[in-house]
Design brief:
Order of helices and strands of chain A: HEHEEEHEHEEEHEHEHEHEEEHH
Number of strands of chain B: 3
Shape of chain B: globular
Largest interface: A-B, 24 and 29 residues
Shape of chain A: globular
Order of helices and strands of chain B: EEEHHH
Bound molecules: iron/sulfur cluster
Distance between the termini of chain A: 23 Å
Number of helices of chain B: 3
Number of helices of chain A: 10
Oligomer: heterodimer
Strand content of chain B: 25-35%
Largest sheet of chain A: 8 strands, parallel, barrel
Helix content of chain A: 25-40%
Strand content of chain A: 15-25%
Structural class of chain A: alpha/beta
Radius of gyration of chain B: 13 Å
Radius of gyration of chain A: 17 Å
């Protein structure tokens, strides 16, 4: 994916990360937490142009859940509220046992996509999300068994090495789809030159998705649009619409990035087009 | 065992919720869902080791204090 893809007006896949697992309504009361709220948010972002919804599960009090049953309730609600959106489950989970990290893959039907974290990242001051290679491989194996497309989450430059390592260890169906993540802490420093380095150092034929945290969400999404990649926005990654102004909804963030894509001349992919781009169609 | 400073509240910090949520009485704020796993010592997490708020409050969080 390059600037040429932008010039060629390749369709843009918009992913909406609706809820996440780190913060919740204490950070922004508009973060959806219950299955019904997540389902409604999915309907609204699909109407706004998102073709993929990235989902985490919450307990009734907003705390994290890794239970298959809770993901099932969420998927059922999402399907009630959407036409044809692509469901992507998170398998992330700092501190959670490896067995729990597999549980989001076991809904019926399975999600079409699931995240696969490429390596460790620091959390708070005394916690690391390990994401060992052994866990990456076991999650990938179950995804292959269940026909789930992995979304490789590349939190920093070293994780690109891990992508190449994964490609040596295991067969990944084409195209490789990697989300490049920019922000504070263990993430790649959110600077345009780092974005250019990252996109030029991906495996040949890979598709990339662009994720900027917090105030970097919009500028990095715009770079993703300009350089032929795809974009992820949503309240999981950014609870603000502007400085000091909380976002009203996930849909508000999707609507903005769709307007930017439109102004820049990049068409937003339909869900069918997104399935074709991501290699999900039969 | 859970952190002694953890409470579940429906109101506080100028916010209110239908379902009681994890509230930290050290900082008088609702805590993030992921941190609530630390507050509850879920999985292999432990508030004495993993929460910088607890450590600072108890005087165990000085610069250089290692997780040993
Ligand atoms: S945030 Fe830290 S100090 Fe506060 S209740 Fe949770 S573990 Fe205890």
């Amino acid at each position: 994916m390059t600037y040429e893809a932008f010039l060629d007006r390749a369709p843009l896949v918009v992913t909406a990360a609706l809820t996440g697992g780190v913060h919740g309504k204490e950070a922004n009361p508009n973060v959806p937490e219950t299955p019904e709220e997540i389902g409604e948010a999915a309907g609204a972002v699909e109407a706004a142009g998102a073709s993929v919804v990235h989902l985490h599960a919450r307990r009734p009090n907003g705390e994290r859940s890794f239970a298959t049953e809770r993901f099932q309730e969420i998927d059922d609600a999402v399907r009630r509220h959407t036409d044809d959106v692509i469901i992507q489950h998170s398998t992330g989970g700092t501190g959670a046992p490896d067995a729990d990290r597999h549980r989001p893959l076991r809904t019926d039907p399975p999600p079409e996509m699931a995240s696969l974290d490429m390596g460790p990242l620091n959390r708070y001051d005394h916690l690391t999300s390990e994401n060992t290679r052994a866990l990456v491989d076991s999650l990938h194996a179950e995804m292959v068994d269940r026909g789930i497309k992995p979304e490789l989450e590349v939190f920093n430059d070293g994780h690109r090495n891990e992508v190449y390592g994964l490609l040596e260890r295991r067969d990944l169906a084409d195209p490789v789809y990697a989300t490049l993540i920019f922000g504070p802490g263990t993430l790649t420093r959110p600077r345009p030159e780092n974005f250019l380095t990252a996109i030029s150092d991906l495996p040949v034929g890979a598709q990339f998705n662009t994720l900027g945290f917090g105030r970097h969400q919009l500028p990095f999404a715009t770079m993703g649009i300009l350089f032929g990649g795809h974009v992820r926005v949503g309240l999981e990654d950014n609870v603000y619409y502007d400085r000091g102004e909380l976002a009203e909804s996930n849909a508000q963030l999707v609507e903005r990035v769709v307007r930017v894509a439109d102004e820049l001349g990049r068409p937003v992919a339909t869900t069918d087009e997104a399935r074709e781009i991501l290699g999900l169609s039969e | 065992m859970g952190c002694p400073y953890l409470a579940y509240r429906e109101t506080g910090d100028e916010q209110s919720f239908d379902e009681a949520r994890a509230f930290c009485t050290v900082v008088d704020e609702f805590v993030q869902p992921m941190r609530a796993d630390i507050c509850n010592d879920r999985y292999e997490l432990a508030h004495e080791r993993h929460c910088e708020i607890y450590r600072a409050h108890e005087g165990t969080g000085e610069e250089g204090s290692a997780d040993t």
